Amino acid sequence: MAEEETELSDNQKKEIAKWFLLNAPAGEIQYVAKDLKSVLNNDDVYDEAASEAFPVYNKSHMICLEMSGRFGDVLVTSYGELQGNEYLDPKTAQVAIVDHVKQVCTEVRPASDEELPTPYVEEYRCALEAEMLKYVGEAYPKGSCSVYCINGKDVEGPGYDFELVAVISAARLSPQNFCTGSWQSIWNIECKDDIQVLELKGKLQVGAHYFEEGNVQLDAKHECRDSTMFQSPDDSAIAIASLIRHHETEYLASLEASYLNLPDATFKDLRRKLPVTRTLFPWHSTSLFSLTREISKELGIGK
Amino acid sequence: MEAAMGLMRRMPPRHSETALSALLSLLPHNSSDLLSQVDLPLQVLSDDDSGKRFILCEYNRDADSYRSPWSNKYHPRLEDAPYPSSKLRQLEIEANDIFTVYCDQYYEGGISSVYMWEDDNEGFVACFLVKKDGSKTGQGRRGYLEEGTWDAIHVIEVGPEEETTRYCLTSTVMLSLTTDDVSSGTFSLSGSIRRQMNMNLPVADGHLCNMGKMIEEMEGKLRNSLDQVYFGKTREMVCTLRPPSEVLPMRLPDS
Questions:
Q1: Structure confidence by residue, pLDDT tens digits, B25-81
Q2: Is the CB of B186 less than 8 angstroms away from the CB of A28?
Q3: What is the model's pTM?
Q4: Distance, CA of B126 to CA of B169 (rounded, Å)
Q5: How close are the terminal C-alpha atoms of chain A, in Å?
Q6: Cβ of residue A179 closer than 8 Å to a chain B Cβ
Q7: What are phi and psi of A72, to 5 degrees?
Q8: What is the CATH number of the domain that holds B92?
Q9: Does A30 contact chain B (CB < 8 Å)?
Q10: A217 — contact with chain B (CB < 8 Å)?
Q11: Are residues B170 and B106 in the same domain?
């Protein structure tokens, strides 16, 4: 190890700081920030890194913030981003102004007409959101969801395609139990007017972190597709929500199955619970000592 | 340092190498503390003479060279390097042979190495290492894993030889596994835990027997712990985020 390490440039330190912040598990970025500040010992570099990293983190984790003025919650997502720190909540047609580093909503203003979809699109968006809220309310004890129009929001009537995206974000923080977790679903719904079909593409991502005297993390992802007929706003909404519910329930079941398989099947490829003999290793066996050399040679073990 | 260790506990275990080198560059003056307290997945070299692979760690390293437990030679060659005494080397050779068989039984392959050296207290220290690649392209017999690694480091401090000798074991297991299929996407678990176990055992049973049994017991406990407690907690968390449908409360009629 060189004794005289060249001092890192501020820019290099900032990039490293950003890396730590961005890789914080869901809900733990403030704890990482605290430790990072201590390690960096340089508030200017930290502040710059935080101002760059927090927005990216917040959007990718789709954090949920309370809006002032009793408007409920807003999800910070790239779909709802109007400007650097302004996020639309389609449900209430309000725009939340957000402080990314502090992870709070500082102000709320009504959305302008240009920021909202046309009444035609809004009918679909709103109907779907209502169904999604029902579903999320039932299925996720602490989940939030929003439905945005991300393409074709100015479509005035039938004859044109538009695209909606429904996002679900749920997070659980239990720092006193050393456990955190997050679930994110992003469902793109392409409303294809010409073929009268709604095409769904879902991306599900689940994470969990347990860190009592250790550090174990789950990272699971899944993609799926489906489609249904383009109908009236209410019927489409019901059909879409029911497909989403079906796929997500199936995914949860397959996660469970993966966990069930772990101890006996999956883990075995790493380390068996017991040797094939089903007994503990015979360390006592004195003849084993000279035998092992023979076995090792014969079986070519250790190559 | 405490903050640095806090960061290591939160960063994804798969990225522990990147995290450690980031910390080393931010805290160059704490490098020896960091290197001794943070475990990284094990690296492997091939012995020049036999072609057999051996595991690299702080305990067989001198400067930038590593001593092979098979040939007892440093790679690359080094002048004036430390070696265990010939008596200890005998024990080391036997330990390597037996441990290889043990690993074959539990790990269905894998790479193992044992290093020993005298310590200042008239006892000695032994380090048993295992590295297993369980992916389907590696040595995973059942083909479940897209990616899977198990790295175990067991360091045993053996007290001076008396009728009952004291053995202090510190074990670290690092593992990561990923399954990937069309119907359920990618499922990835990774993590590390470290535990200690101290025992006083009759030296008449033999050092290898005593150490071997401790390691076997510890590995079993760690495997169970990882599976049931650690992975189990992540599973519990998933079910808390989105309970399985059977558990959902009945929908109350709209009032």
A1: 999 888 888 887 888 889 999 988 888 999 999 889 888 899 999 999 999 988 888
A2: no
A3: 0.86
A4: 9
A5: 32
A6: yes
A7: 95, -150
A8: 3.90.1150.210
A9: no
A10: yes
A11: yes
Are A254 and B184 in contact (CB < 8 Å)? yes
Q: H helices of A83-155, where? A: 119-139
**ipTM of the modeled complex:** 0.85
Question: H/E element holding B31?
Answer: helix B31-37
Are residue B30 and residue B89 in the same domain, yes or no?
A: no
Q: Are B32 and B103 within one domain?
A: no
Q: Which residue segment(s) compose the domain that B16 sits in?
A: 1-38
Whether B97 is covered by a domain: the verdict is yes
Q: Distance, in angstroms, between B6 CA and closest chain A CA? A: 7
pLDDT digits over A130-185, tens only? 999 999 999 999 899 999 999 888 888 888 899 999 999 999 988 888 999 999 99
Least confident of A86-95, A257-266, B78-87: A257-266
pLDDT in tens, A19-37: 999 999 998 999 999 999 9
Q: Which pair of structure tokens corresponds to residue B231?
A: 């992975």
Q: Domain for residue B67, yes or no?
A: no
Do the beta carbons of residue A207 and residue A226 sit within 8 Å? Answer: no
Indicate the number of domains in chain B.
2
H or E element, residue B100 = helix B86-107
Is beta strand A143-151 parallel, antiparallel or unpaired with respect to A162-174?
A: antiparallel
Touching check for B209 and chain A: CB below 8 Å? Answer: yes
Q: How far is CA B148 from the centre of its chain?
A: 14
